[in-house]
Amino acid sequence: MPTPTKGPRVGGGPAHERLILANLATSLFEHDSITTTEAKAKRLRPLAERLITFAKRGDLHARRRVMTVVRDKGVVHRLFAEIAPDMAVREGGYTRITKIGARKGDNAPMVVIELVREPLSAKKATVKEAEGATRRAAKQEEAKAAAAETKAAEDAEKVESSETTEAAAALPEGAVAANEDGSSPDEAYTVKGNADSGKYHEADGQWYDQTIAEFWFKSAEDAEKAGFTKAGASS
Amino acid sequence: MAVPKRKMSRSNTRSRRANWKATPTALTTCPQCGSAAQPHIACPSCGTYKGRHYAVAERTEHQS
């Protein structure tokens, strides 16, 4: 049950709002995706989702309830016959609102409200789980590496020569430790590795400049071999 | 009807209006095309948002 709306109605009054929302819902079910203002889309969403819930029920009573809002029989048929089966496994969240910037004339924030008709993939859930697992693993590895590094740094103060061997042992394969200010120790090493995020940044990457590197790699392949992922690749 | 007793001085008017300030728009770079875009809003130059494409979001030079 949608929360009752507070404040003024959309349009000239309660009846006008009902008409506006009914027309918007009709258009949405007819075209799958409509462009409107943000305020209207936000009012439309609970109504549209409720109508889809009726459509999923699919019986005559539900159809009559929907007919009180959407007056067009063709559109109601489309909702029950085409849209409802797509939403069968989805538990709510049938619509998606995407902002597209302000309208020119009155600077009203515009949005696209659309039906989410792509199938709910079981893959998504497993991918999420796997990503979490790799992140945890990377974090543990990192903690180890960081501990080894601090130890190496402490040792370096005493014996300079032993530092290089120790640090190399803690580093991933094909990487060199960064200088203290994060700059590259060698010009041949151009790819930044961020130990905190487990990501690497190439020179043309979006976050290259702001990243403080713990490791430097010769190339992206080396970084990937060492278990780093490309920054921004997963989004 | 209640009315102001005194004319508001130029100084008062101006000091009130001096606090009307414009703030710069927050901008991010679009991961798709690299141009500037507002956060949480589909990119006006390529029309993509979270890997989905919205043709209505695209703006020409004239419209923006």
Q: How would you characterize the overall build of this protein?
A:
- Chain A: Part of the 50S ribosomal subunit. Contacts protein L32.
- Chain A: Belongs to the bacterial ribosomal protein bL17 family.
- Chain A: One of its GO terms (biological process) is translation.
- The complex is a heterodimer of chains A (235) and B (64).
- Chain A has helices at 14-31, 38-57, 60-67, 73-86, 122-158, 160-170, 220-225, and strands spanning 33-37, 95-102, 109-115, 175-177, 191-194, 199-201, 215-217, 229-230.
- Helices cover 49% and strands 15% of the residues of chain A.
- Chain B is an alpha+beta fold.
- Chain B has one helix spanning 10-17, and strands at 28-29, 36-37, 48-49, 52-53.
- The model of chain B has no long low-confidence stretch (mean pLDDT 91).
- The interface between A and B is medium-sized, with 11 and 15 residues.
Sum this structure up briefly:
Chain B: GO terms for molecular function: structural constituent of ribosome. Chain A is α+β, with helices and mostly antiparallel strands and 235 residues long. Chain A is built from seven helices and eight strands.
